[in-house]
Amino acid sequence: MTLPWLIEPLTQLLRKKDTFPQSLLIHGTSGIGKVEFAHALTQALLCHSPTASGEACQHCQSCDWFSQGQHPDVVVLSLNDTPSDEEGSFAETDKNKDKKTTTITIDAVRQLTPFLTVGAQRGGYKVVLIEQADALNLNAANALLKALEEPPKDVIFILVASELKKLLPTIISRCQKYSLKMPSAKEASEYLTMTESQAQPLLAVYGTPLSVKRALDQDLEKYRLPFLRCLTDPKNRLSEITELALKIPLEYWLDWTHKWCHDLITHYFTNEPYFHTEMKEQLNLQDSSIVFDLLMWEKQLKQAKKWVNHPLVPKLYIESLLIPWLSINQTLHRTH
Ligand SMILES: [Zn+2]
Asked: How far is the CA of 150 from the centre of ligand 1 (A)?
């Protein structure tokens, strides 16, 4: 397990290996390593010579199969390889190869049937690992529920979810829940090989150490403050802001903007930016009449987040997200 904050929870679960639940639902905030955790757990459950703490040895035949993604007693259902043939808000673009899948379909769940009915290759456990149980569509969830209701003796289901409210209550009630906690500031900064004071503003924006690392790996931090300063400078016109936004993945600048909007709203009540802590000087909210406009804009930005995985977001759409801000920003500078 490479994520240090998950080692203790992992060994804690593996200590109860003999009474391991047949269906385990691992849940917690997005970006804390739940999927990595579920993989490490699966590998350890199948390992032929686990370590004293119960973790996988990394050397036996089972561990070899597992690390090559070829273990005959494991099926992983993931958004990355599920067929995208079902309903949904992006159905009209389903043929587009660049589209990221947003749900796990019934076809993927049906593929489990032969796996569930054949005995384990090594006479031990078989594991069904569902990496995003909250992405099962309704039909898929119902098909899975049938399997959870009458599970073969040697099968363990490990479900992973960030948003429990997206799961059928009947699925949740069939599983033993296991909540993974957020890493502490110390654990997070050690993982990021930074001091706590360097890590703190990044964790405030991105939420978790893995999300911070993803942004840093893509070298996106170099854009964040320049983008926000461009956005907040009343001299800039729509075209200048849009031009910069087009250089940055939509997922990122939209999230930064959404959080900036939150900072403006909460600043009215708390005086401190919650997310972009470096932007304190640009917080100028004096006029309470702006709060309503900010709330409307916040709603629009939140809605727009549904589009972040779409391969073709038109420039006009991007501009339509920024236009409300221009008038808010002008009012802010008029009243300042
Ligand atoms: Zn092993």
From this structure: 29
DSSP-assigned beta bridge partners for residue 74: 127
How many Å lie between the centroid of ligand 1 and the Cα of residue 67? 10
State pLDDT tens for residues 195-230: 999 999 999 999 999 999 999 999 999 999 999 999
Q: Please tell me the predicted confidence (pLDDT) of residue 285.
A: 64
Lowest-pLDDT range of 80-84, 297-301, 312-316: 80-84
Whole-model pTM? 0.79
The mean pLDDT of 127-134, rounded to a whole number, is 95
Nearest to 279 by CA among 204, 211, 334, 207: 204
Which residues line ion ligand 1, judged by CB < 5 Å?
47, 56-57, 60, 63
Strand 23-27 versus strand 74-77 pairing type: unpaired
CA of 168 to the centre of ligand 1 (A): 34
> What distance in angstroms lies between residue 74's CA and the mean position of ligand 1's atoms?
14
In the reported structure, the alpha carbon of residue 43 is separated from the centroid of ligand 1 by a whole-number distance in angstroms of 7
Which amino acid is located at 164 in the chain? L
